[in-house]
Amino acid sequence: MAEPPKESIHSRIWREEPEADNPFAASACYCHGYDVFGDVLGKAGWIEYLYLLFMGERPSREHAKLLEDLAVALANPGPRDNSVQAAMNGSVGGSHNAACLMAALAVGAGQLGGAREVALAMEVWDTCGDDLNAWILRLTNPPKDERANVWPEMEHAPGFDPHGASCPTPIRQVIKHLAEQPPADSLRWIEANREALETAADCPLSITGVAAAAFHDLGLTSEQGEMLFLLLRLPGAAAHALEQKEFGFRNFPFYRHSIHLDDDPGPHNSVGAEMTLP
């Protein structure tokens, strides 16, 4: 009886060679042709390897520096960010660590300060380039997406903060620093035209707009930028989740005034009281 044909996983990114005594274990792993554990390990940094994975080639020193500095800027959005709060909520409520990170990814994936907004802002770069008039026309008359889509219609210009009063100091510091680097043509352009763009968008530039410009300078597609934005913001969510677990739910700030006891037995006999969470 003939053996069934062997299945193969096709990948342009990764190639493995089997161990002589175990075909299910690799003796060598190659990422875009580079021997990961023979050559890359110990010689390339985390950011260089990340770039290699996504782009298929080792980065220049300038591209690696731009991506590394952007990664520092994105690593911790802070406990006021919705994605970080989602991880904190899960952790203080007793969820497993993986669930906390999944909560951060889910909340941070959206169109209000999330990864989807970065992808949409990168699409503006693809369409408008460095044509200021095209940007202003796009921001003041955004196109309607007529395709069936799981995402709701955008309610603000992607890359800008609809709740902002002015461009925050850290955003201006990040874009100023990144714009000084050689590959950062888009960042320099958006820094030079920030006020005109903010007037057209009727709201200040946000970190999603800065990240989109940086990813565009690095040559990433909008989908690659969306993925990297999700990935690079996870460290802060993880650290804050673990911290809040240590503090405990009694010190968790956000819902203290939103918990209402239907039948409060008082401070000496509160165990078992029913609570209603609005």
Can you characterise this structure?
- The protein is mainly alpha-helical and 278 residues long.
- It has 13 helices and five strands.
- The strands form two sheets. A three-stranded antiparallel β-sheet has the order 1-2-3. It has a two-stranded antiparallel ribbon with strand order 4-5.
- The termini are far apart.
Q: Which percent bin holds the helix content?
A: 40-55%
Succession of helices and strands: EEEHHHHHHHHHHHHHEE
Radius of gyration: 23 Å
Q: What's the number of helices?
A: 13
Average pLDDT confidence is: 92
Give the N-to-C terminal Cα separation: 65 Å
- The tally of beta strands, per DSSP, is 5
Order of the strands making up the biggest sheet:
1-2-3
Low-confidence stretches: 269-278
The major pleated sheet works out as: 3 strands, antiparallel
**Structural shape:** globular
Q: What fraction strand? A: 5-15%
SS-derived structural category: mainly alpha
Please write out the topology.
Blueprint: E1 14-19, E2 22-31, E3 34-35, H1 36-40, H2 46-55, H3 61-74, H4 82-92, H5 97-107, H6 115-128, H7 132-140, H8 169-179, H9 185-192, H10 194-201, H11 207-218, H12 222-232, H13 234-247, E4 260-261, E5 275-276
Antiparallel strand pairs: 1-2, 2-3, 4-5
Quick description:
50% of the residues lie in helices and 8% in strands.
